[in-house]
Each structure stands twice: as structure tokens, then as C-alpha cells.
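Handover notes (outgoing to incoming on-call)

Open items:
1. Phosphopentomutase: sequence verified, structure written out, both below. Nothing else pending on this one.
2. Nothing else urgent.
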Amino acid sequence: MGRAILIVLDSVGIGGARDADAFGDAGADTFGHILAAAKTGAADRDGLRSGPLKLPNLRRLGLHRAAGHIDEEIPAGGRYGTAGEVSRGKDTPSGHWEIAGVPVLFDWGYFPRSVPAFPASLIQQIVDDSAIPGILGDRHASGTEIIAELGEASVASGKPIFYTSSDSVLQIAAHETHFGLERLYDLCAVARRHVDPLNIGRVIARPFTGEDAASFRRTANRRDYSVPPPEPTVLDRAVAAGRKVIAIGKIGDIFAGHGISEVRKGDGNMALFDKMLGAVEDAADGDLVFANFVDFDMLFGHRRDVPGYAAALEAFDARLPELEARLRPGDLAIITADHGCDPTWPGSDHTRENVPVLVFGPGVAPGPIGRRETFADIGESVAAHLGLPPGRHGTSFL
Ligand SMILES: O=P(O)(O)O[C@H]1O[C@H](CO)[C@@H](O)[C@H]1O
Ligand SMILES: [Mn+2]
Ligand SMILES: [Mn+2]
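Phosphopentomutase C-alpha cells:
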């Protein structure tokens, strides 16, 4: 049976979603547009990277083939294909829960694009229950931009910054020491209670440090307050069967701790890769290591930074042989994504896209798995590999 290693490259979509138009995303293609930009030099940045994308390992595992960039030069080194999303949203929890076998077939609550964006009664309840002097922001925004704009006023007034995006999310930014990190966490827990009736997917604490607009930086102490998935996922099935589920990065938060035996966090993709390697060494037969690599989305997709995204893909690719060297006979590894976030697309939000499905391991015979109709096929394949009972939303491709 071996172990299963499930890897989400956060936002590394490959375009082609049948329903992209309904999201205003027809033509969005995170990987394809970075690949194309790199060919023309549009992904060059002095001191960072230059030239065509160098992804020898992901290419060998079939990323380019999965994405429809036919590549006959290199024989496929793994099973490769693509998956479409059936969940209604293009947000992180929907993508991850569907990967884990549970699509989100209900509508999340969203805050309108108006200013203010939050209902006055909601803000009043949160202010009353948390003893803050009021709030700043109260609109849709990019997190880094709104901290640069309102961070100094927030520090001076003691009012935290509330903002949202096209995700089902209430984000609260406050200074880590002037406001206080624990106080920010307590405030988010209060806010979590009050947004429950509005069906909001996540409240996110976004602490920052620095002393003025030019030096404010968000820290790794971000914390997500998520609702749990609507029904048991493959993670819950694994834990119920006595297996260990080791969550790397924000996986534990995304599943609100449900079906998670152990959480290992890291600051940035490279630290997360180290944590993942450690977990692969520690996992026993039948266990699941589930990792999320957040930088692609948070640092480069939302910031619409093409060279940064390209460099992050190359850095991840360069470390893949370290993972492959730690795989044992019978292990199954899958690389996929939870949605797109095309850095060439207008705005700063996610993009509705298909995702790659790259399946590899010492005993995995190379070849195509075609287009899967739901990300849930990934979780069901993990279940089949680990000998867990099947769920009701997907079909194993093993
Ligand atoms: O601009 P920042 O704060 O990074 O916000 C992004 O991060 C949120 C959570 O991933 C998303 O909803 C998106 O809006
Ligand atoms: Mn995501
Ligand atoms: Mn995101």
C-alpha cells in the first residue's frame, strides 16, 4: 500500500475550464501564460531569473502535456492529466475540499463590492464583542495595498483594517505589536462567530510589522478561521481508519483541523518543502502527507507578478528530485492545484481554471489519465491507494 503524498501548488491552474466564462475568466491560464511570457522575455527580472521556463522535473512528470503543450521530446515520467472543478466557487477551501473528495455544491456568502462592504450590524456586533474602537477599510482590497494605505492610521487609532475580496472571506489586518497578535487572533475568533450566519468561508488574521507605509510587511503569523467541510473527506476516512494525516502549511487551517493528525507549518515554499520531506521520512505505510505551497498564490498570483511566479515554479521544480529520492516502493505522489490565479489577468483575484494532475512514484506506470470531471477523483484515488472506503463524489483513476 505504501504512503500517499498529496501536493497542492496553490493557484497553479492550466486554463481550459468549461465554465470559466461564468466567472469572467474565459481565456485565463496561469501556467500557459507564464510559459508564454517566459518565451518572450516577459518573465525576466534582473537578479531573479531570465529566459524560457526551466521546469525539467515537472515537465518530465507531464505538466506540459497535461496543460496541452504537446511535448514529444521527453518521454512521460508519470501519469498525467487534468481535472475540472464542480464546486461553485474558485476559492481555496472549495478547491481543497473537492480534492479531498467533497465538492462544495452550496453557495458561499460574499460581501458586495460596495463601500462599505460589510453590513453595519455585523461590524457593530464585532466591535461590541471585542472592545475595539472601530474599524478601517470596510471594502474590497488587495491586502498589501490596503496595509500600505491604512496601516499608519490603524497603528495611530488602534482600529484594525477589515477588507474582503471576491472570495468568501473577511480579512482583518492589524499591527503585530502595536495592536497585538493574540488580540488580533481573539478578534478573528469573535468575527468568525458573527459571520457564521452569513455563510462566510473564512476569517483571516493578517498581522503585519514595520513602522511606516514603506516598511510594513505581512508576517508568517497569518491564521485562517475556516468552517469545516460539509461532510467527511478522505482525511477523515484516513484518521478513522487509524492512519496518520500530516498537514503541511495551511492544510490544517483549510480543513479546520478535521481529519488532521499533525500540523507542520513553514514560512515560504522552501521551508514548506523541507517540512514535507521531513513528513515523508516520518510517515508509515498507509499514512497521508498533504502539503500546500502557498507562495505561488499569495506572493505572485494575487500580486500579478509574472517573473516572481516563474521563479517560484523553477525553485519548486529544482527540489522535486529530493522528494522522489525519498519515495519508497508502493508510494503514490500526486501534484495538483486548487484553482488558478493567472498573473497576467486583470484584477487581483483567483481565476477559474482546470488543474494539472501529475501522478508519480516508484511503481507508477507513465501514461495519460485524460480529463477528470471533478477534483474529487484525486481524493478517491488517494483513498483507493490507501485501502480506505470510497466516498460518493468521485472515481479513482488508479
Ligand atoms: O490581497 P490578499 O490579502 O493577499 O488577499 C488574498 O488572500 C485571501 C486569502 O487567500 C484571498 O481572498 C485573496 O483576496
Ligand atoms: Mn488557493
Ligand atoms: Mn488566494
